[in-house]
Amino acid sequence: MVYDCIIIGGGPAGLNAALVLGRAKLNVLLVDNENPRNKVTGHSHGFITNDHLSPKEIREKGFKDLLRYPNISKVTDRVMEIIPDENFLVITEKNQYEANRILIASGMNEKIPDVDGLMKLYGKRFFNCPFCDGWEMKDKKLAIIVENEDVILHFVMMISHWSDSIHLFTNGLILDDSIKYKLDRNNIPYNEQPILKVDSTNEMIKICLSNNEEVIVDGGFVAPVLKPNLQFANQLNIDINERGRIQVDDFGKTSHPKVYAAGDNISNFGEQLVFSASSGSKVATGIVKEIALDKFV
User: Fold this and answer.
1) Which residues pair with 144 in a beta bridge?
2) Measuring CA to CA, which of 50, 190, 219, 250 is 20 to 30 A from 181?
3) CA–CA separation, 52 vs 42, rounded Å?
4) Rounded to whole angstroms, how far apart are CA atoms 234 and 80?
5) What are the distances in angstroms from CA 86 to CA 3, 9, 83?
């Protein structure tokens, strides 16, 4: 069977795209490895009708919605390679499939600062998105851990909206004087020393620095390094923009004429579930329009 579209990734973007494409009478295959980036998160927020549900619950609701449509199939598998030809050959760990079009909704790989003790708190007391978890951390004493000078001021500015008690840690990065000036002007303390560990006992969290200083906080936010999850797409030769995301037009078409992308891997502002779901819907409508135009003579 040659599918009209194979979607790679079963997060909100992939799920919503599958729903829209399926309802447009297209034969769709959704391939998902069930290893989402937000699996460490206990609750998701800011997504109307889904507020405070876990990412897993939202995904399960989405998969349930797709069951109504016999032309939408879903497999749990990992895409290893996509070979472009007259159609696309999608090779997975368990099988191989063929499709006329490919929609990449595989999200991002993230790397948080390599600090002892931080990972076990990530998604529980430390987060990366204030719009997702800022309400739960509002007015608390927060640590902000950022190792990339380019995003420090923006990240600190945004977190400061939710709490007046924030403390910046750069984990060894020496700040430019212009950044120090801005932080001092806004009365935001900062430490440039390497972080030895983040120590948590009961309700108390200690940021332990290389100069033996310890700073007690309630939790905080970190700025991870994000890169598109594209290890399977080498043969597609799709363009990447200056932000490291997939370059697309207004309806998600990449530099390859029959490859599209949706969700976090094309996002230019914030990685949120509601943005991804909207992106998947928009890209899917573009695909349907394109198919209809091809048939209309």
Assistant:
1) 168, 221
2) 219
3) 9
4) 10
5) 13, 23, 10
**What is the CATH number for 22?**
3.50.50.60
CA distance 218 to 201: 11
pLDDT in tens, 26-57: 999 999 999 888 888 889 899 999 999 999 99
Q: Do the strands 214-217 and 204-209 form a parallel or antiparallel pair, or are they unpaired?
A: antiparallel
Residue 50 and residue 45: Cα distance in Å, rounded?
7
- The pairing of strands 190-191 and 166-169 is parallel
- Checking if the pLDDT of 203 tops 90, the result is no
**pTM of the predicted protein model:** 0.93
Plot region of 32 (φ>0 → left; ψ -120 to 50 → alpha; else → beta): beta
Same domain, 97 and 230: yes
Q: Are residues 217 and 117 in the same domain?
A: yes
Contact 271, 108 (CB under 8 A): yes
Pick the last residue of a domain from 222, 254, 281: 222
